[in-house]
Amino acid sequence: MTEATAPHDGPLTGVRVVELAGIGPGPFAAMLLGDLGADVVRVDRPGGPGLGIDPARDVTNRNKRSVVVDLKTPEGAARVLGLAERADILIEGYRPGVAERLGVGPEDCRARNPRLVYGRMTGWGQTGPLADRAGHDIGYIAVTGALGMTGEPGRPPVAPANLLGDYAGGSLYLVVGVLAALHHARATGAGQVVDAAVVDGTAHLTAMIHGMLAAGAWQDRRGANLLDGGCPYYGTYGTADGGHMAVGALEPRFYAEFLRLLDVSGLEEAHADVTRWPELRAKVAERFASRTRDEWTAVFEGSDACVAPVLSLREAPHHPHLAARSTFTDHAGMTQPAPAPRFSATPATVRTGPARPGADTEDVARDWGVPGLVSPPSKP
Fold first, then answer.
1. Which pLDDT belongs to residue 101?
2. What DSSP line would sit under 113-179, residue for residue?
3. Residue 305 class from Cβ within 10 Å (0-12 exposed, 13-18 middle, 19+ buried)?
4. Buried b (16+ CB within 10 A) or exposed e, 98-120
5. Is 319 assigned a catalytic role?
6. Which of 122, 308, 340, 380 has its CA 20 to 30 A from that of 294?
7. Angstrom distance (rounded) from CA 87 to CA 334
8. Which residues are CB-contacts of 129 (< 8 A; sequence separation ≥ 6)?
9. CB within 8 Å of 240: residues ≥ 6 apart
10. Positions in the chain short of pLDDT 70
11. 88, 163 contact by CB (below 8 A)
12. Predicted local confidence at residue 5, as pLDDT
């Protein structure tokens, strides 16, 4: 069977990734690479990450294999270096300097494998006054200005779980970075270090807003702008049963359809008249409060009014559109998001459930040609 006709588990089939186990954005980034077909080997530490999550339920460890290595022992670094020598990408999420102290830093790994792309995932980055400080998603997005844009004026900003910082500003930028560096490595034979920081990625996500701010089209305060809830036709409203509807009728033709289906008249000109926005908001809120969420969903179904029901995590997989696209999938007894995006020639799949710590040591040692994983490693 030729390479052109060989089966694929995604466009990254054949790419080898080492993930030094951590929490947050690193594991998610490694999962995404695994979803896209890479052979991801997660190097777990003895005792696990300490989060108290059942490894069998940790979806971010799907499409991976696991080995357990104690990097605090003399042979631990040698085992990881053996994997790094055969890998295309390595991902770690330690504080700056920790990987170096453990003997698995960029210089150690790339001395064994000059083509290696070494991805570093942190909140603050490898340099700067806060580089060595502890932190979490909410603090990272706070200093970038992104958190300050969420929520109602006069009330504290609303934390968007850890989706904005850890995963959007962190994991996705790490994946973009290591794949770009992998392209460079394959073209030149030279790997490099990728410094992915949540603060950098999250700040980058605000590029359009900074452009609007510079153009005078955005006020640097919460709840006063087109896309932050300040606009009455871009936001959420409560329904009679305690549910909510999301409205995004920005363009004039969508706004007209929205008013028609909502059965609101006399406010057509309020679209461009901010002085009438309080009046419009009150009327829209009154109308939505008169029916249940499901009733309003039926009213707007099939229209271009840009209105959708606000669903819970358990409800989302049953939405007709998401169900038709198989946006969610059931695997290993769990409903979970399916791999994204989609590829016409090399579709990505959920091949395996969450990797159990250490369960794949012998298979990885054989497949990667690293016998030291299951026997005392030879000296480099």
1. 97
2. -TT-EEEEEESS-SSSTTTTS---HHHHHHHTTSGGGSS-TTSPPPP-TTIIIIIIIIIHHHHHHHH
3. buried
4. ebeebebbbebbbeebeebbbbb
5. no
6. 340
7. 30
8. none
9. 289, 290, 291, 292, 295
10. 1-8, 49-52, 375-380
11. no
12. 36
User: Is the alpha carbon torsion for 289, 291, 297, 303 positive or negative?
Assistant: negative
CA distances from 38 to 14, 64, 198, 348, 374 (A): 6, 9, 23, 10, 23
Tokens of 173: 């930028």
What was the pLDDT predicted at 1? 33
Looking at the DSSP bridge assignments, the partners of residue 202 are none
287 within 8 A of 276, measured Cβ to Cβ: no
Among 299, 279, 264, residue whose Cα is nearest residue 232: 279
Spatial neighbors of 111 by CB under 8 A, at least 6 apart, are: none
Catalytic residue among 8, 136, 244, 319: 136
State yes or no: is 136 an active-site residue.
yes
The strand pairing partners of 246, in sequence order, are: 236, 308
The predicted pLDDT at position 51 comes to 63
Residue 148 is encoded by which pair of tokens?
């300050």
Q: Which two tokens stand for residue 128?
A: 């700067």
The pLDDT of residue 55: 87
Helix (H) or strand (E) holding 207: helix 207-214
Catalytic residue (choose from 9, 108, 166, 360):
166
Residue linked to tokens 């900074």: 210
User: H or E element: which one contains 209?
Assistant: helix 207-214
Instruction: Report the pLDDT value the prediction gives residue 376, as an integer from 0 to 100.
Output: 66
Query: Would you state the structure tokens that stand for residue 335, as one six-digit string?
Result: 């409903």
> pLDDT at position 4, please?
40
